Amino acid sequence: MMVQEIYRQTHFVSHSQIDLVANGAELAELECGGTIASFAPGHIKIATAWDENGTVEPHVELIVTGFDLLAAADVPDDMTAVASGPFVVLEDGAEAGNYIIGDLAKFELRKAAYVATVFVDKIAPMTARRVHIHLRRT
User: What is the chain's mean pLDDT, rounded?
Assistant: First the structure.
């Protein structure tokens, strides 16, 4: 099986964060703060850009890929891997976006245990405008 794009969408974010949550998982009380990515079973929270005091729209592009090992050619040159952790899907499907303002979208994802690797275009907390999560089945 080769690497495939599962999801791609630009989200309007609030409180400088975006989430990936598996169907059947509880929304964890994760904090971004000084951490770029936080993991809980079935939930990943990533610190993203903010609106810079109203000077820019707080839009963040989220890309999710899977399922094989990711080759260097599969990640854009301007993205950096910042964290890896477990992501468990108990029921088929997932949801991504910002829960605070409700900019959310559902997408198909098979029930499985994954290792998720998070890539961002900027590695300082609260600056990323592009986030790429790669899911590899364990």
Answer: 87
H or E element at residue 119: strand 112-120
Task: Compute the distance between CA of residue 46 and CA of residue 38 in angstroms, rounded to an integer.
Answer: 7
The answer for 20, left when phi > 0, alpha when psi is -120 to 50, beta otherwise, is beta
Report the C-alpha gap between 22 and 7 in whole angstroms. Answer: 13
User: Is the whole model's pTM more than 0.85, yes or no?
Assistant: yes
Backbone CA torsion sign across 103, 89, 87, 64: negative
Distance CA 116, CA 65 (A): 10
What's the one-letter identity of residue 11? H
